[in-house]
């Protein structure tokens, strides 16, 4: 019988790592092929612009919850030196490349193909496809970074040099969004203990400082609308229900971002097979990892699955409604499916080891059947068994692609680059000459432009214009309206609803986007002066606008202090790695 032998070091041999990078290149090319065209992919929460301005309201959102902190700050800083179209491609390539290589190097495999099974499974998952369609590239960076963070935690527990710095780098990538930062913090707390654990946990807390300090100074408060619990609950994608959809790393709340192949009647059966493989592989992980670490990772995976499924469990929705409406910061639990990241990593890691274990048993049986009697020449059992082993593993490598073919070519061609109309540059230049608050009308958080193929996207104006842009923060999911938290926007919305004009507000400019849909009462524009009328944008100036003054500097500097603290920790980790040769 085949028994466990010495397992290669984390990441495998140099040839193993090279094969993983080649695999990552192939997967990235197949998924992101449409991005070879010029332009910007604008889809739901994914908005990149030619050069995102560096503004206070992008560093710290004083009137809204810090959902895009520090993501907007990072993009604004980088886009001062890197054009937006290139920055978007770097981010998306990093997501798929790091996810592929990270998962493959983390699995303690004895076969190179086992690493590829884990790598392709993790990078070709329903979770990645659905969040990519939703445009949440920041969350996907956390998804890609988590295997690297776990690998660094393994090194840290083993006392390897540079491990803490590598953990900080992985956590910093994850902490580009609040959800990713929380996942990095939780993973570090679970996997690393002792004095090393205290240092690692302190560093990851510091990396979360930008959004924590931003949340502390916002006027929006830390609570969210309870109506969002039903809107963001995991949903069924086929006959098996939401719990099975989550078990296969799918189940996103937005039906428009669910690949069509997820509705197949065979998908739940494949999910059950994947779970069986993971159950077979988990004991292998326990034997090959340091004592207790696999159990800790398994517990973290079960916790993440439980949180993702909470809204669908009996009584769970009521608990969540109370939490998000009463406990500051609990709104992070509202969209539970995004918390599946640790579960997805553990699932594909164990499933790959389960496949390797089954192949070992297959090899043993083939060898027993093909072996010749002792008094005759031995049959070439190994030469006959090896191709069969490879055939099974190659089949498992290709299985995710067969089950989720939609991910090819930009998720079935849905990631299509476009160019901003010339109007956008014209309006941006006018506003830049006389900066002031801008209101985007008609009231809507998301837009659907003809020039963007009718694809839904969050309003790009706040990132395109060199001034603060106010947009409606009410989110509509079907017929359900989830109220926003911005008190300033609430007053403007009430003024328009009562038939008043925005001329009586403190906004300097009003941009009307007639092609984006939505209804705009005629009374809303009374008293405004037309400055520019183009095919896609109309710009009005409010002659009655009064400078309301800047928000208190103290709040700004507190939030900026959080960003500086996180940056200092990151730079210290980078400097430590650059001082020594570190094996990655």
Automatic annotation (TrEMBL):
Keywords: Membrane, Transmembrane, Transmembrane helix. The chain crosses the membrane at residues 18-36, 86-106, 135-156, 168-192, 198-220, 265-285, 297-320, 340-359, 391-411, 557-578. This is Membrane protein YfhO. It comes from Micromonospora polyrhachis.
